[in-house]
Write a structure and sequence with these properties.
2 domains, eight-stranded antiparallel beta sheet, 15 strands, Elongation Factor Tu (Ef-tu), domain 3, alpha+beta, Rossmann fold, seven-stranded mixed beta sheet, elongated
């Protein structure tokens, strides 16, 4: 059984979570999605979980802990998500919106409040629910325990929605929903509504940039737009940092204008000089 872990813990605390999991399910196959989520950044954690979870096999248990409210009245929750193809994913986390985008990306889902203290470690710490509540609950579910045993189903869970970019004629309005470790800006403008072709010229923050199919098709240090691996419009700088170049951070508005349909028959062979 696969169990994934995601947190903002860094490289020390996850080891004790794994120890608890192996103590309950010695056959667990634990995969670290990331423990480098920026401290307390629920939105970044939610995006990373959303874009990774769907690639794991059915019955995977995802334990995600970005928990600035640990020890307060915020609830621990467990979620069962059903994919249209019949697959099931389980998610365990605090009730702060962290796992809802991931569950929604799988399909229909149900949310349960974790109240069954028999599943916790004997004396749970007030400051490390990842080890004492979420890890053991996830381990028991990975062993086949029904999710209903954690507690009652709830409907007033905290939601988190990245929103959807919109198109008006040749203008796209969206928000920055993720900045990756390279400084690439991921927007909430889905590839489903984009009709640019490679070689088109766009305008962002008054700067003209090409729409290309990957980073290396413009010169080092020059900006470009592309469809990233998550399926959203991404703004990048070849071997540079787009978030600094455009002075953008998560949740900032972004406006993309298609100003010139400049199609090149083989854009892979063309390098662009950007005039700003």
């Amino acid at each position: 059984m696969v169990i994934t872990l995601l947190s903002d813990f860094g490289d020390v605390y996850p080891a004790s979570m794994k120890g608890v999991i192996f103590g309950i399910n010695p056959d667990a196959n634990i995969v670290d999605i990331s423990h480098s989520i920026p401290r307390h950044n629920i939105r970044t954690g939610a995006f990373v979980l959303m874009t990774c979870a769907k690639y794991f096999p059915t019955s995977t248990v995802h334990i995600a802990v970005v928990d600035p409210g640990v020890g307060t009245k915020r609830r621990p929750i467990a979620v069962r998500a059903h994919s249209p193809g019949g697959g099931i994913h389980f998610f365990i986390s605090p009730d702060n919106g962290l796992l809802i985008p991931a569950a929604r990306s799988i399909g229909k889902f149900e949310v349960y409040e974790i109240t069954n203290r028999d599943l916790f470690r004997k004396i749970p710490s007030h400051t490390f629910h990842g080890r004492d509540i979420f890890a053991p609950v996830g381990a028991y579910i990975s062993m086949g325990m029904g999710i209903e045993e954690v507690g009652a189903e709830i409907f007033d869970f905290i939601d988190l929605d990245f929103g959807t970019g919109i198109k008006t004629e040749e203008t796209f309005l969206g928000k920055v929903i993720f900045i990756d470790p390279f400084g690439n800006i991921v927007t909430n403008i889905s590839s489903d509504i984009i009709d640019f072709k490679y070689g088109d010229i766009l305008e962002i923050e008054g700067i003209k940039i090409p729409f290309l199919n990957s980073y290396g098709f413009c010169k080092e240090g020059e900006p470009l737009a592309l469809i990233g691996s998550q399926g959203y419009l991404e703004i990048a700088v070849n071997q540079g940092n787009a978030s600094r170049f455009f002075n953008k951070k998560i949740d900032d508005e972004i406006i993309v204008i298609g100003i010139n349909k400049y199609h090149v028959p083989n854009s892979k062979q063309v390098f662009y000089t950007i005039n700003t």
